[in-house]
Amino acid sequence: MVYDKAMQEKMSNNFYLIGIDEAGRGPLAGPVAVGAVCVAIDDEDFKIFSHGVRDSKLLSAKQREEWFQKILLQTQKGKFSFSAAFSSADMIDTEGLTNAIRHALASALSKLKCKPEDTLILLDGGLRAPKRYPNQITIIRGDDIQPIISFASIAAKVLRDKKMIALAKKYPEYGFERHKGYGTREHYEMIAKHGILEGIHRKSFLGIVE
User: 33, 84 in Cβ contact below 8 A?
Assistant: First the structure.
């Protein structure tokens, strides 16, 4: 862990460790997602349970789903809690990607219902938690070197993918179940053929100015 022992000694038995990461920063369509996973900071089983977990981008879809099922099982056992929040394509277009991620991040944290003073938050990359959370550390490549952030990465990715698969059933001609909204050749061809979907495609990412 990256936090020092002095900080840990100040923490009560009710102190929680939260990992945060996002998914869907770059697609042309669909929401951006932020995942948050929480575990008791003194959970002695966490190191064993988390052995082998990786950043979601380094796992196959099957591996991500397997790890997500483990997250669900640990949640049912009361070992974990997790949440995810989404900001829509419309919000990305009107407020910008950074603000959209910030909004989803705050929402994901609020769903965990942890007191800010009783949490240590580890965030990936350039992410930051709201200022009311005094104990937070942003870690470059945190999604691959801090298991709690890896779990957040997996939760965000899996749940966003499920949303895109649901969209594929509503709009089968776009192939969302395959590319998940990313800018593949197929996706660009489908946009050229069928046009953009209001509220689903990120117009700002497609260079569309209204």
Answer: yes
CA 33 to CA 161: how far, in whole Å? 10
Strand order across the 32-40 sheet: 80-87, 32-40, 16-23, 119-124, 136-139
Give the type of residue at 83: S
By the 8 A CB rule, do 174 and 166 touch? Answer: no
In sequence order, what are the beta bridge partners of 18? Answer: 38, 121
Report which secondary-structure segment, H or E, holds 73: helix 61-76
Q: Determine how β-strand 16-23 pairs with β-strand 119-124.
A: parallel
pLDDT tens across 110-129, in order? 999 899 999 999 999 999 99
Say how far apart CA 150 and CA 46 lie, in whole Å.
Answer: 13
Q: Measure the CA–CA gap between 30 and 100, rounded to whole angstroms.
A: 12
Q: Which fold has domain 5-164?
A: Nucleotidyltransferase; domain 5 (3.30.420)
Ranges assigned E (strand) in 61-191: 80-87, 119-124, 136-139
Structural element, H or E, at residue 201: none
d(CA 184, CA 205): 13
Q: What is the DSSP letter of 60?
A: -
d(CA 205, CA 64): 27
pLDDT digits (tens, 9 = 90+) for 170-210: 999 999 999 999 999 999 999 999 999 999 999 999 998 56
